[in-house]
Structures
1.
Amino acid sequence: MSGEIAKAFARARSRAEGVLVGYAMAGDPNIERSVEVFAALVEGGADIVEVGVAFSDPIADGPVIQAASERALRAGATLRRVLDEVIPPLRQRFPETPLVIMTYVNVVLALGEARYAKLARERGVAGTILPDLPPEESESLRATFDAEGLDLIPLCAPTTSAARAQAIAKDARGFVYCVSVAGVTGMRAELPPDLSERLELVRRVSPVPVVAGFGISNEEQARTLASHADGVVVGSALVRAANADGPAAAKRLCADIKRGLKR
Amino acid sequence: MKSETVAGRFGRYGGRYVPETLVPALLELEEAYAAARADPTFGEEVSRVLREFVGRPTVLTPAHRLTESWGGATVWLKREDLAHTGAHKINNTVGQVLLARRMGKRRVIAETGAGQHGVATATACALFGLSCEVFMGALDVERQALNVFRMRALGAVVRPVESGSRTLKDAMNEAMRVWVSQVRDTYYVIGSAAGPHPYPTIVRDFQSIIGREIRAQTQAAIGRLPDAIIACVGGGSNAIGALHPFIEDASVRLVGVEAAGHGLQSGQHGASLTLGTEGVLHGSRSLVLQDENGQIQEAHSISAGLDYPGVGPELAHLATTGRMEVRTATDDEALAAFYEVARTEGILPALETSHAFAAARALAQDMGRGTHLVINCSGRGDKDVATISARGVPAAVGVKA
């Protein structure tokens, strides 16, 4: 484990806040501008930055992130370029903020599992989220990541049984990403009524922090979840804000959501 | 040789690379399918519907004039084009829709490229009274108007998919996204021998009726197994169905034919077994057309059914281990074969099937007289008449002007 992620949760806890994991798409609209968007997320209060790396066939993503992926691919974003041109400047400006890569498993396989783990760690990436890599398929990759000290962050879903959630949490590195809704990424007006119960269930058995993601886009939702989870992930809403109104808009949204996370 | 090494794995290929939300549904499906397989009444019902509704067994036609014209192996045609709805796709949809009903799912979704699997799913849903939604790339909706109408006439909702390349690959992405959000009451009928475990196994099992019939029919006709079987390969459902029952018969050559599109060097083809590299697409590890950064490339073929950048994991394994030989045919070769079969045997094959015919000629000649070659005639060409006729029709034969 990198330990950086645990420190970020500890810092937020000491300030009586939930953690904000802010997501944006690397290379949207181009590599340089996206670095500014990521910086804006941190300046707005994001405790952990999730760096999206585009894939041509993003089956876990809704329309906002699909469109961002297409823009990033047109701008020439690749995993290699993200590691070389996005991660280092962010690392330099925000040495304490853990950077987590989110992409699809094929993108990592194409670079090579071991090569990716080594490069990512060298550049200062703390963890990786692969939404199409369920526990059954993750053993070898987790071992490779463990050897480099890169956290493979697992996901739990609304359809995951309690026993399965327990097994997922037991093997988790960094944090457990609890998917709030059965569906793809994207803003939702309402979150499912049983979400807080499910979060508590995973939290009880998890040795690492538990965050909720998918569908969360505003301060009010963050406030509701703050007492049931260690943090929230906000993605599509930030991607939309950055795309429509620029980095400053994403920064403002982070600050709003962060207010909701104060306990 | 057994191709399934552990459950859902074919050597290096296969597996279940899907969002966690879908894993419990795939586990439920795996369990329900195993229970159905163990229940003789389920198998009997599938057989009854295939007999009474689909028209199975489909015949094995001796292709006398092709045999004579090619001057090599004796050629036989397994006539899946004569199955109800005009292609082999119905074998699988009858089985899966019966499984969906048995599992108590109220809603069925499917993806389709050319529309044959969509039509076959809509047909089975109409037969058993389930609601059906078919996801189809917007580009395919435009170029396959006949099948779009057929699905709608059968009561299905056709949902055009506007993302990505607006073709089969994107339709499959969208079907998976919709499945994620409605997974509790929805059954997803995959038509290719691709996708996450257990789909490649389920599709292969339901399509293997083709190969089992070929076995029985060649035994009856020539008193032995054929020397070779050839089938076109897109995702691979007709190929795995025709070939799988022969994997352990070392004397039978198994041959798959991929779309070479504008040529293997053109970068515009669907030859994932020939030129693909190992990767993960649509839930399984297999051979895929991708760039060095792991981005999936757009495939090209004149036939929408072969216009897919991946291939089923079991076929990838059979090709990698050498059990299946892989050949290719270009758009132009497939078109030429279409007319050759039409005018020599009185059959309009689907453009997908025409690829198998295009490669069969050299194979038959190579095999020589006294040997027997079965071509899996996977579908009929009615759906393709607009594509084909747009390129002009060659002059009639044997009629004086």
2.
Amino acid sequence: MQEITLTLPMLPDMELTASKTACAMGEHIRMSPDKIDEMRMAVVEACINAFEHSKARDQKVKVIFTILGQHDDPQGIEITVRDEGIGFEPDSVAVPEIEEKLRAPRKRGWGLKIIHGLVDDVQIRSDPKGTTVVMRKMR
Amino acid sequence: MTESLKLTVDTHDDGLAIIYTEGYINNQGGEEIARVAYELIGQGRTKLLLNLAGTKIVNSIGISILIEIIEKMLEIDGKMAFCRLTPTIEKTFHIMGLAQYAGIYNDEETAIKELNG
């Protein structure tokens, strides 16, 4: 199993570091450029969600990239984005709709919808000790 | 480590303005686009085209600010469109439903034709 772990400080544009690592991992397993791009965008969204909402005391986000499958036959990449923040109730997050957002003063809240649309599988575990988002993008 | 967005504007006589972006559309980038867009709207421009050929990555905070511009264009009965998006940015715009309120075109020529149509 091949794995890379990043610990990102919650600073502006640090999500791009995770994005670049996703790109390198995707190229390593010869994922198509479009799929790499989708994975990059999903990891950016997961990171900025953690930066914006976790309220983690350590102000850090851990991102773990794991190649799925055998060394000589990689099947995809699993990306785990973990914070030690206050957590949230995933089922209570309203799914945003453009018609409502156009009328609403707050236009944000798209991160999870984008992630779900760009990767093959998403699992979210959250409790008052933190949140873990596990995304899988298959080759 | 902040990546600043560069913008170039091309204005036409028929009320159309094209904003060319280069770089990451995050919150600062989105705000910069909005600042320029509102300035153009204030000058009487009613057709706005964002050419994203120079942008390879965006985030949802930046796109949320683009939604504010779409809202403003709807208020003034104007038209807004995007062209030269990467496949992932286009897919993201479709996931969010932006394509219902702003045209998305492969090339600038088609976008201009549609905005002027």
3.
Amino acid sequence: MKKLLALAIALLLAMGCMSAFAADGPIEGLDYPDLPDNTLKITVSTANFGTDQVNTKMMKLWQEKMEEYLGIKLDITWTTIPWDDFRSNESVKLAAKDLADVNTYSQGDLVNQYGAEGVVLNLNDYLDYMVYYPTFVEGNVGGWDGINNLDGSSYVFWDGYDNDVNLAGAQSFAAYAYRFDVLQEYGLEPATTWEEFKDLCADLQALIDSGEVDADYVLHNGASWMAFYRGFVGTFHTWDTLYWNGEEWAFGPIEDNFREMLTELHELYELGYINSEFQTDESADDEAENARILCVPTLWAGSVQTWNAQSDEDVVWGLAYLPSSEHGTAWKWGSKITGKNLGTNLQMGIIVNAETEYPEWIVSMIDYQYSPDIYLMLNWGVEGEDWYLGDDGLRHYTDKFMAQPVSDRAQLLADEGIMSSASARTGIAFVPQIFSTIAAYGDTEPWWSPEKGYYEGHYWYETAFNGGVESISPYDRAPIVNVSDETKTARAALKSACESYAKTESVKFITGELDITDDAVWAAYVEGVKSQYKGFDDIIAAQNEGTDLESLSMYHD
Amino acid sequence: MTGTASTKLIGKRRQNPILRFFTLLYKQRTLVALCILPMALVFVFSYGPMYGVLIAFKNYNAGKGVWRSQWTGFGNFQWFFENVNSVQIILQTLKVGVLSLIFTYPMPIILALSLNEVAKKGFKRTVQSISYIPHFISVVVICTMLNEFGSVNGLFNDVRALFGLDRVNMNAGTNYFMLFYIGSAIWQGAGWGSIIYLSALSNVDTSLYDVANIDGANRFQKIRHIALPAILPTTTIVLILNSGNILSQDFTKILLMMNNTNRMDLEVISTYVYRIGIVTGEFDHGTAVNLLVSLVSLILVLTTNRIVKSIDPEQAMF
């Protein structure tokens, strides 16, 4: 009896000791390390996108909801740095191993070398602690194979996206902006083909020359930092970087199609249609708002709403889908994949310091950001206060925002920490965004299509309807590529180095400083692009060798 | 031990340079104590990180660190010279550096000498204050101003228009870069740079001017024979130091003056190192190119010093 009693006491003591080292976490059956004072004390380094999200209403709700889910207290020291500064310092901070416990990340494959050396946490060692993130991974092409490295590791919680309306919409370089007031007054229409576009430019130039239209130029760039050709590459079925062209990986700026595009742009420049300051004017918005230009082919589509809000009432900017060419329907840039996914361009996300003390808790915490509980809340705000369910069964923002001028709504949402504003990424960036919220608070803008004529629409939807399936570029539905960590790192560096060179030299071709018709000059340019990074051809060859063509069958557009 | 042997031993001890060095240190211990902090700073922040230049000879993997990364010999240097722009980058670097030195170096001297000749103190102080102000304007503001003024409808083109010249996009390409770069450097730095020369001029014995007046020397003769010799040591040291900076231009200003029409043409070694080393993350390659610059800069300083020494040994730094 005494022996049994002693055994029972020993067992009780052992269980007691074990419970002292393991705590209950959000996932049943998993052991989480015990925390001092039941509090997870960590540092987070993240970016702010125009509005500091840390003290917003939604951030407080994020913490409350997170603590409720995890069953612990969170004591987080936040460091938020403006996005541009954050990005420019990121590679240096990684090299110096100067990481917080949790870090926003935006350098794509660069992380792999640090992960391999034990600087960044291998998330696949903690798959059991994830519940919600796998849904986004499995919605992506290639699923886990698409994000894992060859050795089975994965170091980034990639930025997720919930395309809840299942439309392949886009926002930049997917439409040209035209002065609809001028077109309508003179019985003109936006171009549907490249030849029509050139004819339209000639007509508009004639109106300027005759003094009938008071403007300086027909064409201008949407912003000087954007390569002007960016608005045209889709029409000529090429790209501005290393991309999947439907058959193989290629560096766009050295392709024949790219040369053809530059030839056409040079012709437009010679005819005097393009503003001579197309790559240096830092006040392109002013040119549009003051009606000094008539067409902007390279732009973020949302600019049109701002221009219309800022210009005189009789100036009307509107959008029309990119003109097609003999290559077919123009490709748009960045069209969204349907459903929950991580997108095709795995560039941004969250990384965890390998030396963090409680990776189990941290992995579960970040994973919970991919739950509808968190991302619906942060994208929409609080029910009743910020949004309501309409009779149409859809969510709508309340009058708190919608009664305000369109131009003020984004900032009002951002001040609350609501993510649809785009200038506040609440939680630890990046919490998944939702397609339907992006258009929910904005106004529509004028659109034109051959079928509907002039009408009102929103670019996120209209770029999907107008372009159709053919407008989705192969690059936006690229196959997965299995290459070594070294090749991934070199690939990222190659893009950066070679794009810079191509940008400058392309301007010379457009302005005629370099002769685009001279094969020797073009060959020297191609050689120049390749010389910007060691082993250019080898890296592209490795990229093609590692391409898994079967993964293409996973797209469902 | 004989007395002679003992004396020899003491003599040897006295001649031991290490012992003599430490004895001297002990005797001057107050001065040594004063030097400890600055020397520590130099060792920690200047000499300490020098081991990092090793990555110039390695295929640097930041995860593995400096020591565990693989050696590549001169591969990173070779890569730079394989770039079709490498010669142009070097030439542009030299062009910017040499022209900057030629035009910006004499300006503070000329300004100081001119101000020294001004008799009215109020006017002199006003000119000094006005000439110092641009020094405190951020280079970002300067470049924004240049960009605005150089645009087709900007101030500089308004001036061109007054003289009947066509309006041109002065921000595009490289035609106006040197004018803007050096012009703004003179505007920003001449006043501030003149302080050191004015300080040297204030130490000139005024009786020399009295004697010169008695001898009937005119204003330029007094500058030539009194003022210039007085600031010669300062100008020489500034020249030697500036010659070492020929390859290290105002990196921020060049970076800010770049745009998509001239990025490759304006590229100098420092912007190249930034673009490839920091932005692209090729730390090893960036270090290799920078090491090359450091070596050339050292050679330039030594050469300038040697030239100065051959002309006037007393003016040389070492």
